[in-house]
Design a protein that fits this description.
Elements: E1 2-3, E2 34-35, E3 38-39, H1 56-89, H2 111-116, E4 138-144, H3 147-163, E5 168-174, H4 176-189, E6 194-200, H5 205-208, H6 227-230, E7 237-241, E8 245-247, H7 251-255, E9 267-271, E10 295-303, H8 304-309, H9 312-327, H10 334-344, E11 349-352, E12 358-359, E13 378-380, H11 394-405, H12 425-435, H13 444-449, E14 456-457, E15 474-481, H14 487-494, E16 499-505, H15 507-518, H16 521-524, E17 529-535, H17 543-552, E18 558-561, E19 566-567, H18 572-582, E20 590-594, E21 597-598, H19 610-619, E22 623-624, H20 639-644, E23 649-650, E24 660-664, H21 680-690, E25 694-697
Parallel strand pairs: 1-21, 4-5, 4-7, 5-6, 9-11, 12-13, 15-16, 15-18, 16-17, 20-25
Antiparallel strand pairs: 1-19, 2-3, 7-10, 8-13, 9-10, 14-17, 18-24, 20-24, 21-22, 23-25
């Protein structure tokens, strides 16, 4: 194994944390107070008329101030009269605010009026505003499946958390992949007043698999139809969102709209902003039946209790069966079936103003939904093109989306003051451990690091690999930061087997990595590389924590514990698989040591055999690793013996020994108390020896 550069680079990963303190500006139309119609003096000295400080000057200032107070009060009365007159002429423009509630934008449930002009929803007359109690929990349901959708959910959740002022309960209908990713993410995110429950999407497939669907969302695009059956029976209402949604306002405003539902209205939907359901997009275009333009199901308000009483399950099934006799399949997944049901039962719908679902697909009327940035509530990237969609203001929408995409998620761990949070055992234990540390200790920050919970996003990119059936498979394990990304392509070219990597990145760097990977043919051609993002927090580089994350998600029986700066010899993967059998690693506690070398040259003809490597050692082109800096680190490998050896030989552990090894997957984790540079591998090798793991050195023509 060859190291590209000699020695190591120390670096300090610093995460910049911003403390945002909301500034509240008060406009005082009135100062002072009145008792029995008389002004109460603002001077604190009035009760002390004989005080030496009670001078003629202060008396004049007090009188002047009282005159000004009366003037302001008179102006205030005049202003109130004007407001009363204005409210009498236009009662809809009054907006209230209460210390425990939020004032909300008024929508309209009148479908005909909205069709006459979609923008009317934004400028509609507002009556008494519905409210949401300060600590009322808002329920949100999202269907999510796969690696890419999991990334989208994170951006959606960030936009919701950024604006929210209420406790949130997310109901995630997820496949096994998304559940593993998002469960770990939320567990390590530790956002106060946020609860997450998962529902197995794979168990719901039989409920909708009988419906042929052409939409790119596949079978998961139909699962919103069965939410009344899937979600808890005691859950009365829920906001249902697509994963490609971005919020530009507090979700409590949307939750408040439930209070406007009347009669048999059980669905809150925004009118579809394209001509799809009008059937005039192309010749012979035949969409599913819909009421006018139809409705878009990217944002849905569901009154679950009433839907269950109406036998929603039976209603949509009968409608789907009837329509499929002529339509054969759905084109827009659940949206087609929702619209077919609404066509027959228009009384079910409360039509939301279109700013609650500004649809950014090609050829939509979304521009009529807003006149200003303040009009925007929810942005829906409902085109397969996503950020590449054609829209007059797409640059603004794209920047808004990218803001949340790259926003530091650690800043969203803010408490909701005044709202009691559910007891969390992990959080309580963490706080107890932190409280036991001495903040005056010079090493406080260092000691605190081992208790830091780093937000972790597993399988950031698509991963697909099944371990070899012969139980000899080996995964290369390494960790890296942003300044080592250039090593990824080279490692993938040298190692054809599975790889598990932990990357220590900020949110913005994670998106840079994503763009880098998607632009690389080499990386995109490999689906057996697992990228796990551990987000930056604190001032130390948690090197052993990163190694543990990468190790924990290895799916093969054996691991090659390496560093990102090293390139394996060509063919090493297959050679190690043979050596696993030769050394009987499955039934013995052994570690195979891979000899390491380094070069000072960035352009090097890589040795293809042991003979070539020995020749380069003799010429001084290569060196045994850290020979000039830290000889003790690899001295027990006994390179002199290795030069002539043709079979594996045993070496004994010595102090400061830190070789690169192949071990069984059940080997001990690294000690995460080690951060930054130094002793992190030494301690791990010492523990292996203490647990009676006998070191073996693997040899061969390509080693």
């Amino acid at each position: 194994m060859l190291g590209i550069c000699r020695g190591r680079r120390k670096f300090l990963a610093v995460s910049l944390t911003l403390l945002c303190i909301p500034a509240v500006t008060w406009l005082y139309l009135f100062a002072g107070s009145y008792e029995d119609g008389k002004p109460v003096s603002l001077s604190p000295l009035e009760s002390q008329p004989h005080s030496p400080r009670y001078t003629a000057s202060s008396q004049r200032e007090r009188e002047s101030l009282e005159v000004r107070v009366r003037e302001v009060e008179e102006e205030n009365r005049a202003l109130r009269r004007q407001l009363s007159l204005a409210q009498g002429r236009a009662p809809g423009h009054r907006r209230g605010n209460h210390s425990k509630t939020y004032s909300m934008e008024e929508g309209t449930g009148d479908s005909e009026n909205l069709r006459a002009g979609i923008v009317a929803g934004n400028s509609s007359e507002c009556g008494q505003q519905p409210v949401v109690e300060k600590c009322e929990t808002i329920h949100v349901a999202i269907v999510c499946a796969g690696y890419n959708a999991s990334r989208d959910v994170v951006t959606l959740v960030k936009s919701v958390l950024f604006h929210r002022r209420n406790p949130l309960h997310f109901h995630l209908i997820a496949d096994s992949i998304a559940e593993q990713i998002l469960a770990t993410l939320f567990q390590t995110w530790m956002v106060p007043a946020v609860r997450v429950d998962f529902y197995n999407a794979d168990e719901l497939k039989s409920e909708v698999s009988w419906i042929p669907n052409k939409h790119y969302s596949g079978i998961y695009g139909l699962m919103k139809l069965v939410l009344t059956k899937t979600l808890p029976a005691n859950l009365e209402r829920v906001i249902v969102l697509d994963t490609d949604i971005t919020f530009a306002t507090d979700i409590a405003e949307l939750w408040a709209v439930f209070h406007k539902f009347k009669g048999q209205q059980v669905l809150g939907l925004v009118e579809n902003q394209s001509d799809w359901y009008l059937g005039n997009l192309w010749k012979n275009h035949r969409p599913w039946p819909a009421l006018g333009r139809g409705y878009n199901t990217g944002v849905i308000l569901l009154l679950l209790d009433k839907l269950r009483k109406m036998k929603w399950e039976q209603m949509w099934r009968l409608t789907a069966e009837r329509e499929l006799m002529g339509m054969l399949s759905t084109s827009l997944a659940d949206q087609d079936i929702f619209n077919a049901v609404i066509k027959q039962n228009p009384f079910l719908v409360y039509q939301l103003p279109c700013f609650w679902n500004v649809q950014l697909s090609d050829h939509t009327r979304s521009e009529q939904c807003y006149r200003d940035v303040s009009d925007l509530k929810v942005i829906h990237w409902n085109s397969p093109k996503k950020l590449r969609v054609k829209n007059k203001h797409v640059e603004f929408f794209r920047n808004l989306y990218l803001t949340f995409l790259e926003y530091d998620g650690n800043l969203l761990r803010r408490e909701l003051f005044g709202c009691p949070s559910e007891a969390d055992v992990n959080s309580e234990n963490l706080q107890k451990q932190l409280s036991e540390l001495d903040e005056d200790d010079l090493c406080y920050e260092f000691r605190r690091e081992r208790f830091t919970v780093h937000r972790t996003h597993l399988y950031f990119l698509h991963y697909e690999y099944e371990s070899a059936s012969d139980n000899t498979d080996v995964t290369l394990v390494a960790q890296l930061s942003m300044d080592r990304l250039q090593m990824l392509e080279a490692i993938c070219k040298h190692w054809e087997g599975p790889i598990s990597l932990a990357l220590y990145l900020s949110d913005a760097e994670a998106q840079q990595f994503l763009r880098y990977a998607q632009g690389s043919e080499v990386l995109m051609g490999r689906h057996n590389v697992a990228y796990h993002i551990v987000y930056k927090e604190g001032q130390f580089y948690p090197v052993n924590l990163l190694r543990n994350v990468a190790m924990k998600h290895v799916g093969t029986p054996y691991m090659f514990l390496s560093d990102i700066d090293f390139l394996p010899m060509y063919g090493l993967y297959e050679y190690l698989r043979k050596s696993v059998i030769q050394l009987d690693l499955a039934n013995t506690k052994k570690a195979m040591i891979i000899p390491a070398f380094e070069t000072l040259r960035y352009r090097l003809s890589f040795p293809k055999s042991k003979a070539e490597l020995l020749s380069m050692l003799d010429m001084g082109t290569l060196f045994t690793f850290r020979y000039h800096v830290w000889t003790k680190g690899h001295a027990p490998t006994n390179f002199a013996k290795w030069r002539t050896a043709t079979t594996p030989y045993r070496v004994e552990w010595e102090a400061d020994f830190e070789p690169y090894v192949v071990v069984r997957r059940d080997c001990p984790e690294y000690d995460r108390r080690f951060v930054g540079f130094g002793w992190n591998k030494v301690a791990h090798i010492m523990e292996l020896d203490a647990q009676a793991v006998k070191s073996q050195h693997v040899l061969g023509e390509i080693t």
